[in-house]
Each structure stands twice: as C-alpha cells, then as structure tokens.
Amino acid sequence: MNSIEIRELTKAYGAHRAVDGLTFDVLPGRVTGFLGPNGAGKSTTMRLLLGLDRPTSGTATIGGRRYVDLPDPLHRVGALLDAQSAHGGRTARDHLRILSAAGRIPPGRVDEVLEQAGIASAAGRRIKSFSLGMRQRLGIAAALLGDPGVLLLDEPTNGLDPEGIIWIRELMRGLAAEGRTVLVSSHLMSETAALADHLIVLGNGKLLADTSMEEFIDARSTPGVRLRTSDPRRLRAALARDGFDLTDAGEGRWTVEGIQAEQLGTLAAREGIPVLELADERASLEQAYLDLTADHTQFTATR
Amino acid sequence: MRAALPTAPTLHSEWIKIRSLRGTLGGLIAVFLVTAGIQALTAAAIGRSEEGSMGDDPLFAAYYGLSFGQIAAMVFGAGAVSCEFHNGALRTSLAAVPNRTRFYLSKIATVGVLALLVGQVTGLATFVAGQEFMGRYALELGDPGTYRAVVGSGLYLTLMALFAAGLTAWLRSGTVVLSLLIPFVVMVSFVVGEAAGGAAQFLPDRAGQLVLHARMPGDLGPWTGLGVMALWAGAAVLGGWLAVRRRDA
C-alpha cells in the first residue's frame, strides 16, 4: 500500500531521454538510497512520481495509484523536492498553513512539524531570510506535515550542518523503522552509506543497480583482510600452501586478497602464528559506485 | 468534471496564499484606496469649479479614479497567480492539490470572489465619496444609470483582475503581463479609444467602461460592453487553464 512502483518509465525532452525505460520498486520499512551522477534522472523520476511532469510513456504509482488519483495525497506522500520550493515572501508558518489547509491536515500539525524540524523559533520569519539549511528543514517539515507513509527526499542533506545531517539520518532511519517507505536521493556517498539499506543507482536515465547496500558493495569489491603479525615469514609460507599471497601494505601492516578474516584466523591459529590485528577489508560505497559508473561509461563509450 | 471543482479546503488554502503575501493583499486593498481616494481628491480639487470640469459625461466622471484603481486590480490578479512561479512554489502547490483543474479553478474563484467583494465596496464608496465634493454638480444615487455604474464598476474591477490572472497563468510571468497591460490601458487604449466606435470599442477596457457611461459613444450598450470585456477575461482564464493543465511544473 505504501510501496512505489516504477514501470517502463520514460521522459524524453526532444531527442534526449532524461529517464529511459526505468522499472523498479521502492519498498516500505527501509531507507532506499537513490544514487546517480548529476543529470542521471533522479529528480525527474521524483517529479514524474508526483505528477509534476508528464511521462512520455510508462507509469509511476504509489500503492498502485497515480499520485494525482490519491484522494489525500499529503497524508500518503511527503516530498522534499528542492529547498527553493517556497515563496520567499511568506513566513514559514504561513507556507505550512497553506499546505495544511489544502491537505485537510489539522492546523496544530504546523507547529508540531516546525518544532520537529527545529525551526519553531523562526516560524514567523519570511522564508527569504532563511539560510539554505533552514529552508531544507522547512522542506522536511512540509514533507512530514501529513504524517505520510511514503517520503521522497531529494538531496535532503544539502546545506545542512553536521548536526542537521545527523538529525536527518536519525529521522529517516526512524521513519523507515516505523514501516514507512523512504526514498532519499543524494550525491554524497558517505552520507548514503551511513543511511541507506537498499540502493537504486541510475546512469543516463537508465537503471544500473537495484540491490541491497551490502550486495552492492560485495559484488564490486574483492574480499580481503588487513592484518599485523609478528611473524610475516611463517605466515607467508602458510598462506602460500593454500594459494594466498601476503602483500606488504607498509607500516607493519599486511593485506591478503581473496580470503576472509575467519579463514585466515583459523589458519594462523592452526599454525600457531601470532596475529596482532585482523579485519575484513571491504570497499567503500564510493569505490563500488565509481567502479559501477566507470563500467557504465565504458559500455556507453564502446557501444 | 465534478472531481475537479474547488473544495472548501482548496479555497481556504488559496485565501491564505493571497493574504500571506504583502504584494497580493496590498494590491487588493489598493483597489479600494486608489479608486475611491483619487476620485475624492480629484473631485475635491476641481469638482465644483464649473459644470463638466471632470468630463463631459457626469456619470463616467464619477469613476475617474477607476482608471487608476484598475491598475491595482491587475496587480492583484497577476500577483495572485505569479506567486506560484516564484522559485518552485508551483511544485509545492501541485503536490498538495495534484488535480490541476481544481488547483486553477480554486485560485481563479478566490481571486474573482475577493475582487468582486472589494470591487462592489469600491464602486459604491467611489460614487458616494466623489459626489460628496461635487457641490451642485453632484449626482445622486437613483439618478439614471447610477445603480448600473455602481454595480458595473465593481464587475469591471473583478473582470480586470481575472483578465490579468488568466494571462499570468498563460504567460507564466506577472512582470510580463503587467508590462503589457499597464501601458495598454494607460496609453494605447486612451489614444486609440479617442477615436470612438470602430474596432477600438471592443478593446477590453473600453468595452467594459461603457457600463459607466450615461451616453453611449458607440454601438455597444452598457451591459453588452461589459459582456465583451467578460469574453476577454474568459478567454484569458481559459488560456491560463490550458497552460496550467498541459505544462510540466
């Protein structure tokens, strides 16, 4: 009922396809990160989902219904598209009152979400006097207004200070834990890595990946371990018997590719080799992402 | 079609939009202040000097201030729509009211009702305040055509606001609409209109102002003139509706 269904979605501007035959689902109960370089089609997909732009073909629905057909859209979907989606001449409270009136939301919610977003003290100020971070918080307050089951947030951490970034991370995790559907686009890898359970990756309007965060990283990195030992000579010999190679990483550290910490630990214990430090080494989301998009660029270049 | 009509919540939302911006609320108040104020000041200054000092047609002269007040009506109508084109305000509005016809009709209805209320009060106040200073040349309510002019001036201001609102939705810019309309009613229509009759009498402002005349300068009657103006406003509102429905936000 709160899932998002994108089916064969295409949006063409003349010959350019901003979104090209996208098909994916966004499921409730987890934070889904929406990744892709600038111009990949993330914002366009969100606008199509909200019925702000018309698709050239295909459908984008929420619980099986188009956004324009939802009887109480603000109760179902909360969206932060960009921080500039408010008239600068209005006060923050008036901006939210307009939405609450149109969406049949009790007026008391306005002050609740202003409080929740941490801008209650600026409620009576005109939006044009707001910093980017405060506008972002106002946009998030507007998205939360109808207590919706689906949240679409386009670059929500833009302009937020570190405290704000932690706040929104906790907020989104909490919303997903309550069983809501949370779709968050971002170009900040470290942010998305700290936030998302699932990933949708776009490139040139096409779907590049739709997978869990873990699978995404594991599929794009060779497993390996990082360790310190007091007897690298014996360890090298022991590893060589099993076909592994010990590489010097400098400063007394060593790496072994293609093995996991569990396996190496057992091997070292069997041989009685002291291991002082041992950890699995995984690629970061950033490495995995760059690896994927590099593949994609090659693919498009050689086609 | 029923599904696209304005609802109490969408009308309420549109009313908050208008009253929460200085420009639109100010434009609405200015319709009253400018029309009645200029009328009273002008009448006080020259109204008693000689017969016909405010113009040959005493009824039309009773609405001298309307030439200025109509600009405020345009500013109000254009401003009420153009505020949606500031930043991405339209996207937020359409996220709240995704049915575009309902969104647009709610806005047009709110602009129309507010302009009509303020227009009617203005029409009466302008007549009363202006004639107060006319001494023995004053008209009285009940004289031929006076009730028609009082009601008609309010309708004129309403149609002018709707005309500007529709054009703004169509052209997506209040600045463009006002920089077209204001010179038009201030100069073009004045100059062209002096050659009464012909095609000029069908211009929206010339046709609409016939409802304020005691003697008809051309072929159109007072109410048919206002009807011609209503067609202009209706066409602008229709054009705006097509644009709002069709375009990506």
From TrEMBL, chain A:
Residue ranges annotated for the ABC transporter domain, each copy included: 4-229
Alphabetized UniProt keyword annotations: ATP-binding, Nucleotide-binding, Transport
GO molecular function, one term: ATP binding
One Pfam family, short name: ABC_tran
PROSITE patterns (UniProt xref): ABC_TRANSPORTER_1 (PS00211), ABC_TRANSPORTER_2 (PS50893)
Keyword Nucleotide-binding listed: yes
Keyword Nucleotide-binding among UniProt keywords: yes
Family statement: Belongs to the ABC transporter superfamily.
Protein name according to UniProt: Multidrug ABC transporter ATP-binding protein
Organism listed in the record: Streptomyces amritsarensis
From TrEMBL, chain B:
Coiled-coil zones: none
Transmembrane portions of the chain: 21-41, 61-83, 104-129, 149-171, 178-203, 223-244
Keywords associated with the record: Membrane, Transmembrane, Transmembrane helix
Name of the protein: ABC transporter permease
Organism annotation: Streptomyces amritsarensis
